């Protein structure tokens, strides 16, 4: 037997029943009234179990409704959330079915909403969004439904913005290397080759010869200092190889090396 030590108000329409063992029960107002729970009342183990079982569903449903009030959730997200809250498995399943009946849980609608949101606020492509939806437990059919709203033209628009941002990040690299890194960046973001080509075509990136020469000078000087322990011939070779690997034009590299040779002769 257990004795109710006190009853306190909890969030929403719930109450905490504090027992003499130190345990507590979270119950709805309906259960409080149904079992006529009062301070000082003695409860048999069977009654406590019945209250726990009844309370699990009510509490879980209320928690789910609150969880859904912030944003849409997938079925898996609701089940994971209820498991973390220690709601009984049978009740978790019943709650999910009840939420579906109330049209508050629909993975197809969730997929559509998620895709539309990512299109608006992120620089992610379809493949990355697809991976994220899989992690949220959305099946492939519902994922593909959502992705139909991410049209080719909209993908190109997002990819263009992502490419422009990425190109600024690689200003200290050769034009060839920068372009390759931008393409790789867009691939990692989840865009396919067609969208990447269309985005880069729209941006029409062009090499600025003067800027490229300045970058060669900066990168060459860094390599020159890094290899200062080598003899003159090996040092020049290392710098030349390094600049070539970074994607600079052969003529610009030779021009830099020639200028370095002249400096050494002075």
UniProtKB/TrEMBL annotation:
Location comes to:
Cytoplasm
Show where the RecX first three-helical domain sits. Answer: 62-97
Q: Where is the RecX second three-helical domain?
A: 106-146
GO terms under cellular component:
cytoplasm
Which family, according to UniProt? Answer: Belongs to the RecX family.
Role: Modulates RecA activity.
This protein is called what? Regulatory protein RecX
The gene for this chain is: recX
């Amino acid at each position: 037997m257990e004795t109710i030590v006190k009853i306190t108000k909890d969030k929403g329409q719930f109450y905490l029943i504090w027992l003499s063992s130190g345990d507590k029960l979270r119950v709805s107002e309906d259960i409080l009234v149904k079992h006529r729970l009062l301070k000082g009342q003695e409860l048999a183990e069977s009654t406590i179990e019945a209250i726990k079982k009844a309370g699990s569903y009510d509490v879980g449903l209320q928690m789910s409704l609150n969880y859904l009030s912030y944003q849409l959730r997938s079925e898996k997200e609701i089940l994971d959330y209820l498991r973390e809250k220690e709601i009984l498995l049978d009740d978790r399943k019943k709650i999910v079915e009840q939420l579906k009946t109330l049209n508050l849980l629909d993975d197809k609608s969730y997929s559509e909403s998620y895709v539309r949101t990512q299109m608006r606020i992120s620089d992610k492509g379809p493949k990355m969004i697809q991976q994220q939806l899989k992690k949220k437990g959305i099946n492939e059919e519902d994922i593909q439904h959502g992705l139909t709203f991410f049209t080719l033209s909209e993908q190109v628009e997002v990819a263009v913005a992502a490419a422009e941002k990425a190109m600024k990040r690689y200003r200290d690299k050769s034009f060839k290397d920068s372009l390759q890194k931008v393409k790789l960046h867009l691939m990692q973001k989840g865009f396919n080759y067609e969208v990447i080509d269309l985005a880069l075509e729209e941006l029409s990136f062009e090499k600025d010869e003067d800027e490229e020469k300045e970058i060669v000078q900066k990168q060459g000087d860094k390599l020159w200092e890094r290899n200062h322990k080598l003899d003159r011939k090996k040092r020049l070779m290392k710098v030349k190889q390094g600049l070539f690997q970074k994607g600079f034009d052969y003529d610009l590299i030779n021009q830099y090396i020639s200028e370095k040779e002249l400096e050494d002769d002075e």
